[in-house]
Specification:
about 325 residues, alpha/beta, Rossmann fold, 7-stranded mixed β-sheet, 5-stranded parallel β-sheet, 12 helices, 12 strands
Length: about 325
């Protein structure tokens, strides 16, 4: 059932997927729908509710419905205020143990409160209190449009990590350094390759490649070597997550061959993985191909690593509450 009043030529309707959205802003929500409809095959959305001033139902009612809906695996929320904040948090505590809730709580400042007065007229809440309650209830808080979008891609396209040990694979030393900095700043851990994997890769790859962490395939990297690095590390028990950074400008990187080589991993990757490609036309091609596979893609190393941090935080929350990991991305057993 489609009750959005915007015409199809103005709003690209996404296909059916895992994500349900509740939004206190119709324009914000419809813009998010439009973007999701243009990603890869466009199969992202399960339900969408824009509830504005909430004259009859409110955010807690919608969250509870999404929590019980078997077709909803990820919940996105844009909130400006709460009609029943206590109940919303109580519902969130239950729902977050079954599926991730990713939420923007706008109306955080005096300037925001002034703007919202002519929109939904929601009362501002103390943002420190909101922050603490969201954390306690297991809500993944986004602060910007990019945060919300990046989180959605990560949770829709990756499995959850069992720990914080993160591997970087790249062909650019600078990109590896930037990703390593992000890992340190976000309190993740640089994984150490198992001795067996490290020994084999050192034997098989050119001696001037760095087989450590980051794995730096250098500007001589080929598509086959990129795929080889993933094949060798994907089952290493010392690694929980992989940050896969591609700089396609070196001549030996055949991006079409690389993407063809990634396709068989669509149902095989049992670790958290996020992708990054830095550049122009060929980086855009990589993004488009990864979107078709619904792998999470980001344009910078920092955003790629931050997505791993968000996945890890939610995995830690579930483990702290003895809750099983939800199955969002389907992988072969």
């Amino acid at each position: 059932m489609d009750m959005v009043f915007l015409p199809e030529e103005k709003l690209n309707r996404p296909g059916v997927g895992n994500v349900s959205i509740l939004s206190q802003s119709g324009a914000f929500g419809s813009a998010f729908l439009d973007i999701m409809g243009s990603l890869g095959a466009g199969n992202y959305v399960s339900k969408f509710v824009s509830y504005g001033n909430a004259s009859d139902i409110n955010e807690a009612d919608i969250l509870e419905y999404f929590g019980e809906d078997p077709e909803t695996k990820i919940i996105l929320a844009y909130l400006e205020g709460f009609k029943d904040g206590r109940r919303f948090i109580e519902v969130a505590r239950r729902v977050s143990l079954k599926k991730p809730i990713i939420a923007i709580k706008a109306n955080r400042t005096a300037a925001g409160a002034k703007a919202v007065a002519s929109h939904t007229a929601s009362l501002a809440a103390n943002d420190d209190v909101t922050e603490a309650l969201f954390k306690e209830a297991g809500i993944i808080r986004a602060y910007t449009w990019d945060d919300l979008f990046d989180c959605m891609l990560a949770f829709n396209g990756s499995v959850l990590p069992k720990g914080d040990r993160t591997l970087i694979i790249t062909d650019g030393g600078g990109a590896g350094v930037m990703a390593s900095d992000a890992i340190g700043l976000l309190d993740l851990e640089l994984a150490e390759l198992s001795s067996e994997v490290k020994s084999k890769m050192e034997s098989d790859l050119p001696s001037y490649y760095s087989v450590a962490n980051p794995i730096d395939l250098t500007g001589s990297a080929t598509a086959d070597q990129y795929i080889y690095a993933l094949e060798q590390t994907i089952n290493d028990p010392n690694i929980d997550s992989i940050v896969y950074i591609i700089i396609p400008t070196p001549p030996a990187v055949d991006v079409k061959a690389l993407m063809d080589g990634i396709k068989p991993f669509e149902k095989k990757v049992k670790k958290a993985i996020t992708f990054c490609a830095i550049g122009g036309k060929e980086a855009d091609f990589i993004r488009e191909e990864l979107e078709k596979l619904q792998f999470p893609f980001y344009p910078t190393p920092a955003r790629t690593v931050k997505a791993i941090r968000q996945l890890t935080d939610y995995a830690n929350y579930l483990q702290d509450h003895n809750a099983p990991f939800p199955k969002i991305r389907e992988v072969a057993e």
